[in-house]
């Protein structure tokens, strides 16, 4: 590793500890930073992508990345921010000048709870404000990406979009055999038989597997019901399609999982024509950079030309706790 990269790594680690130590302060001040970086004085900056009437808008909101409740930080200025995305949807619903909403979905899915929160927020906007929500699928809108798309008034996918992957997954690592070869012993003191369920230090028992499978089956049932209600399909049909496989946008269209094939521009044209919004201004909500993100962005630009620094920092921050996911992974 070059001298500059060692310097970058040291600075990154220092910033990591500063970030962790000042988490509460950063959280309290984050709203102020957002307002400082907001150019129109509203909660989010609005970028006009098609001119039209400012009193009759179509709001485009992008979801990029894994759906998980993690905030942006000094080392990743583009990571999905769950709370901010929910607030964007809420803002579009409450804003009286917004007549329609397009969610541009590009995600392999993510957390079960986070996906359910987005789904519920979309339903809330539709029911409370009566605003139509269209979904434009990007490269990938699979598993949790499809879960959040299901309640949309219309789903539009590119023919090459990867979608589907209807199901739930939970994984853990078992390195008990490796630890034995290395002469490593684990001492576990627990209050109940199943307190260390999915422990990486031993084999899973059949009773533990049954417990987890019951939980996964329940969450899968929730996923199925979301599609039954959103796509007006039968429970049996959804379960036939929902065996975990991915579909291309063209296949999903033939199966009734999406309504139309097209791009984001096509989706904009559809919502304009179908809802008589030809004169509407099309805007996209944008985030401002918080100050520590700005520092991190410049650090990466100055010292890193590849993903080496990102990989090191992500490894330092990664949690190994197993969790149920609506996630498609290759």
TrEMBL record:
Domain Peptidase S49: 128-277
SUPFAM superfamilies per record: ClpP/crotonase
Keyword Nuclease part of the UniProt annotation: no
Key words of the record: Hydrolase, Protease, Serine protease
Database matches in InterPro entries: ClpP (IPR001907), ClpP/crotonase-like_dom_sf (IPR029045), Pept_S49_SppA (IPR004635), Peptidase_S49 (IPR002142), S49_SppA_C (IPR047272)
GO molecular function per UniProt: ATP-dependent peptidase activity; serine-type endopeptidase activity
An individual GO BP term: proteolysis
Domain of life: Bacteria
Pfam families listed in its UniProt record: Peptidase_S49 (PF01343)
UniProt-recorded name of the protein: Signal peptide peptidase SppA
Record organism: Oceanobacillus halophilus
């Amino acid at each position: 590793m070059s001298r500059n990269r060692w310097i970058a790594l040291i600075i990154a680690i220092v910033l990591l500890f500063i970030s962790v130590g000042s988490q509460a302060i950063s959280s309290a001040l984050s709203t102020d930073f957002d307002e400082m970086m907001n150019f129109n004085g509203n909660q989010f900056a609005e970028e006009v992508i098609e001119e039209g009437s400012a009193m009759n808008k179509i709001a485009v909101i992008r979801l990029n990345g894994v759906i998980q409740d993690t905030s942006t930080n000094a080392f990743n200025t583009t990571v999905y921010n769950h709370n901010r995305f929910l607030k964007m949807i809420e803002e579009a619903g409450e804003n009286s000048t917004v007549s329609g909403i397009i969610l541009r979905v590009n995600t392999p899915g993510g957390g079960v709870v986070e996906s359910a929160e987005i789904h519920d927020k979309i339903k809330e906007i539709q029911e409370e404000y009566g605003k139509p929500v269209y979904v434009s699928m990007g490269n990938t809108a699979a598993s949790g990406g499809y879960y959040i798309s299901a309640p949309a008034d219309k789903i539009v996918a590119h023919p090459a979009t990867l979608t589907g992957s209807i199901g739930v997954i939970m994984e853990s690592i078992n390195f008990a055999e490796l630890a034995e070869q290395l002469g490593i012993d684990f001492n576990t003191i627990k209050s109940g038989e199943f307190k260390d369920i999915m422990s990486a230090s031993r084999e899973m028992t059949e009773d533990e597997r049954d417990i987890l499978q019951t939980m996964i089956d329940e969450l899968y049932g929730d996923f199925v019901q979301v599609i039954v209600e959103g796509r007006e399909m039968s429970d049996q049909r959804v379960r036939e399609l929902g065996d975990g496989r991915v579909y291309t946008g063209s296949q999903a269209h033939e199966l009734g999982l999406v309504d139309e094939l097209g791009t984001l521009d096509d989706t904009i044209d559809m919502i304009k024509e179908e809802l008589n919004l030809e004169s509407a201004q099309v805007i996209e909500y944008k985030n401002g950079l918080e100050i520590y993100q700005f520092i991190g962005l410049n650090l990466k630009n100055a010292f890193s030309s590849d993903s080496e620094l990102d990989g090191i920092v992500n490894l330092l921050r990664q949690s190994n706790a197993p969790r149920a996911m609506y996630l498609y992974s290759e």
